[in-house]
Design goal:
Blueprint (H helix, E strand, L loop, with lengths): L1 H15 L10 E11 L2 E2 L13 E18 L2 E16 L12 E14 L4 E13 L10 E13 L5 E12 L2 E13 L5 E6 L2 E9 L2 E20 L5 E21 L2 E18 L5 E7 L2 E12 L1
Antiparallel strand pairs: 1-3, 1-16, 2-3, 3-4, 4-5, 5-6, 6-7, 7-8, 8-9, 9-10, 10-11, 11-12, 12-13, 13-14, 14-15, 14-16
Length: about 300
């Protein structure tokens, strides 16, 4: 009975998520994760702030679920829904102020559009509408951000084991448009031992010790820009929104635990951390650097072959 259920589930997933859509060599289509960070503190805190000498730590909780794809001729659209909760705690009570982060909720849909124009070339678009807020005030248009990557990709090699995508990355938030280069790289060695993925802003490189065990490195630039309830701080400066960012860099160990279920463990450091506060004109009012902090991450994912 278990084998029949597993066969049905695999057939269902392969119908929903064909390899044409998921060109990546690692196909984790659903999962949950917990990331725990060591204690750290804000730097550059202005004189008179209650945060002077205050330490904090935060955990993040992630979940990802796939949606059925859509087919329009040769064009294929694959989507998933991602939720993240960033939960901050402080070592002592402080007077409520715009510097005091509590909980940040982030809900995003990732929509991948792929249209082949030849056997090796494809048009590629990634649209990422995101809602991010501490939800301490009512929902508004400033809680919504539009993010995306648009370009082309080409497969290389006899076995098409290298795919490179180039394009532009565009983000619209708080009535401001930011455009930067967009790059993606997928690689699998001929012997199948090495797998590498780079999707700005994430890096994932693993070595297959066996069909059930992988080791490697992982990196990402994680940032959240979110709307605040408008404040005037103790120095009379207007604050409307904030951005918390960190660069995670560490080692990873992945182990198949049952059929298509994998457990992934990461450990490393959060580097170049910052917390920025802005006014409605996009001027930086405060720019706190944050001490480096160790982190550990555990993920449970469902991976199709």
């Amino acid at each position: 009975m278990k084998n029949l259920l597993r066969l049905f589930l695999l057939i269902f997933l392969y119908i929903l998520f064909p390899n044409k859509i998921l060109a990546q060599f690692i196909k984790d289509i659903a999962g949950v994760a917990v990331t725990i960070h060591a204690e750290s503190k804000f730097n550059n805190v202005p004189s008179g702030s209650s945060l002077i000498g205050t330490k904090f730590k935060y955990n993040s909780y992630d979940a990802c679920l796939p949606l059925p794809p859509l087919h329009f001729g040769k064009t294929l659209i694959f989507s998933n829904i991602n939720y993240r909760l960033m939960d901050f705690s402080f070592d002592k009570e402080t007077t409520p102020n715009p510097y005091h982060i509590d909980k940040i909720h982030e809900l995003k849909a990732v929509v991948i559009i792929r249209h082949p124009i030849s056997t090796k070339w494809s048009l590629l678009g990634v649209i990422i509408p995101t809602v991010a807020s501490d939800f301490k005030n009512s929902f508004s248009g400033d809680d919504l951000m539009l993010d995306g990557i648009y370009g082309v990709s080409k497969k290389f090699g006899k076995h098409a084991n290298l795919e490179i995508g180039l394009g532009v990355h565009a983000m619209y938030s708080f009535h401001e448009l930011l455009i930067t280069p967009g790059v993606s790289i997928d690689y699998k060695s001929n012997n199948g031992k090495w797998i590498g993925q780079f999707y700005w802003p994430r890096l994932n490189v693993v070595y297959n010790l066996s069909k059930n065990t992988q080791v490697g490195i992982a990196g990402s630039i994680d940032w959240t820009k979110y709307n605040l309830k408008s404040y005037t701080d103790f120095q009379g400066k207007e604050i409307n929104y904030a951005q918390f960012s960190t660069i995670h860099a560490g080692l990873q160990f992945n182990q198949r635990i049952y059929n298509n279920f994998w457990i992934q463990v990461q450990g490393g450091m959060g580097l170049f951390n910052s917390y920025k506060l802005f006014n409605s004109n996009h001027d930086t009012i405060r720019n706190f650097s944050i001490d480096n902090m160790a982190y550990g991450k555990v993920m449970l994912t469902y991976r199709i072959k």
